[in-house]
Each structure stands twice: as structure tokens, then as C-alpha cells.
Design a protein that fits this description.
This protein is mainly beta. The protein has 1 helix and 17 strands.
């Protein structure tokens, strides 16, 4: 299995998509009582990020770049790293080299991140970080203290234990995805234009 980076505009390849969705699929089960109609919900671990991308009216060389990438995925045999291309970095002001301060337990939704010299810097609701290999969205505004520590509340819950000192990526934080279908197709049009629609869902290493 090989992992490829999606050839985004930010990496100097394809233009921004014509249509784009970046969201999350929660892992829940519903049971509706046939007698009372009451609904019970069971939340299970394993919420996943999902991405839908649409390109319309691509021409060469972009057609070749995209089709070469899709062919390399070999259906669902290989993997792709993707970040939220509409919001590739936080709106908040905290940057620099970040690491996890203190270990994080599986199932947790809080953690502390530290960055040397980043005093009174912010991370805001909706900002995304890759924390120890897991992509998270911040759900409460936070400000770093005088030591560069910032206490965060994030979603979805951590799948596994994250060790103290694990790396934190704020610039183009990615998750690992695979195509939701094992095939891709080109839709052709007059003028040598081509259109594509494909979906990816997060997969866990």
C-alpha cells in the first residue's frame, strides 16, 4: 500500500475544484421503538472525515495530472492524504513548532498543545489541527499562556493514546483517506473539456 498526496493548487498542481465538500461522518446507531416511537441513540468510536470533490471543464495538462493521480490509487488499494483546501490553516494566530504537552487518552476531547514563544496566541472554533496523527477541529476558542501552552477542546474524540511530545501540524493538516468507490470516470464535453466527481472517506492506519 502506497500513500499519495492529493495534487492541490496549494502544492502547485490542480486548480481549486468547481465543487467541494469537507465534513464528518459520525458512527452512531439508532433504534426506534415500534411501540412508543422513542428513539435511542448509541454513539460508537470511529467518526470519520469525508470529502467530495468536483472538477468541471478541466483541460490539459490538468486532465493528465488528475488522471495520473487517480490511476495511482488503484481503486481502493492505495491511500491519499488530504487537508481542507478551503481552510488550509487556522484562523487563529498560533503557529510555530507545536507539540502535545502531556499524554492524551483514547476517547478524550481535551488536550494541551505547546509552542515555544507563542504567548497570548489564539486558536479559534473551526480551526483544524493534526494532533499526533489525528485530524481534529477545535470547538472552543482558546488563548495560549505565558509559556506557550494552549488548552484545547476538540472533536471528534481521540481514537487512540497520543504520547507527550507528539507533533502537531497546523499548516495544511491532513488525514488519511481512501476513495469511497473502486472506480473513477471522466465525463467528456465538446471543446476537449472533462469533468470528474469523486468522494473520499477517512481510513485509520
Amino acid at each position: 500500500m502506497t500513500t499519495y498526496a492529493f495534487p492541490t493548487a496549494a502544492s502547485g498542481f490542480l486548480p481549486y475544484p468547481s465543487g467541494y465538500q469537507f465534513g464528518q461522518r459520525s458512527n452512531t446507531m439508532l433504534h426506534t421503538s415500534p411501540l412508543s416511537g422513542n428513539i435511542q441513540t448509541i454513539e460508537l468510536p470511529g467518526a470519520r472525515w469525508c470529502v467530495s470533490i468536483v472538477y468541471t471543464n478541466l483541460i490539459e495538462p490538468n486532465i493528465g495530472i488528475l488522471e495520473a493521480f487517480l490511476a495511482q490509487l488503484r481503486g481502493q488499494a492505495n491511500r491519499v492524504t488530504l487537508f481542507d483546501i478551503v481552510k488550509p490553516m487556522p484562523t487563529g494566530t498560533m503557529q510555530g513548532t507545536m507539540t502535545v504537552n502531556g499524554s492524551i487518552t483514547a476517547g478524550a476531547t481535551t488536550c494541551t498543545v505547546t509552542a515555544a514563544g507563542q504567548t497570548a496566541k489564539t486558536l479559534l472554533r473551526g480551526d483544524k489541527l493534526n494532533i499526533g496523527g489525528e485530524l481534529k477541529v477545535i470547538v472552543a476558542d482558546a488563548t495560549s499562556d505565558g509559556s506557550g501552552n494552549i488548552a484545547l477542546t476538540v472533536e471528534p474524540p481521540f481514537r487512540g493514546t497520543i504520547v507527550n511530545g507528539a507533533s502537531v501540524v497546523w499548516n495544511q493538516p491532513t488525514a488519511l483517506f481512501l476513495p469511497q468507490a473502486p472506480e473513477w470516470k471522466r465525463t467528456g464535453a465538446q471543446g476537449n473539456w472533462s469533468s470528474y466527481t469523486f468522494d473520499f472517506v477517512e481510513t485509520f492506519a
